[in-house]
Amino acid sequence: MTTGNVDIHCHILPGLDDGAPSMEIAVGMARMAAEDGTTHLVATPHANFQFRYDPTRIAALRDELQAAAGDQLQILIGCDFHLSYENVQDALAHPRKYSVNGGRYLLVEFAEMFNIASMEAILRQLREQGLIPVLTHPERNPVFQQHPELAPRYIELGCIVQVTASSLTGDFGKQAARSAADLLDRNLIHVLASDGHSTRHRLPRLSEAAQFVAERKDVQLARALVSDNPAAIIADRPLPYRPNGAVRTSRKKGLWSRFRS
Ligand SMILES: [Fe+2]
Question: Which residues are within 5 Å of ligand 1 (an ion), measured at CB?
């Protein structure tokens, strides 16, 4: 299968969390994603205080969904990993248990309120264990909204930033849209993902946000955020496009140098 758009964050597995409630809706989400141009999609059930993460059940449901959805897109496994104390201890003990497709990239979700210094220490611990934390939707988090210096600070630690595609296009309200556009304009976004939950709201689509990025910035950046970078994440490779950070360390000209800030 050639690689089109790659969605690294989607609650598509049925009956596990607040995402797809049934296999029928999960298949509908797969169809919707494929029709929107997605060829690879990472199923990322929550691991938090409300929903337990059960790898055996998740693998069985992935197989069942893949068989039902056919070869219109490939479904992989990851986790929407909440940064609770218990979760972090378990991830430090079993670094690849929650990561995207068993690689180094780990989606991490922050609490609505968190202590900046403690979170930095946790991110350092995850990095020391060989994981690359993918900060999920900082544009929707009040602490990140109030502290614009946080995203670049965490990127310096080796984290990368994932913004929800539909935040850019306004589905999460004006504050999230402003914050997402600000991250985009400061070249602090590495990847866009749908964080899809159903076929009726929070849809598993990336193309509208890619169009937004193409119009506000350019087509190459749009492709990097919905295809090139997430394809590298599922393959556990270094990101081909690194905003900021990389422009200070790379001597290469071309795409990166145009995003110098
Ligand atoms: Fe999520």
Answer: 80, 195
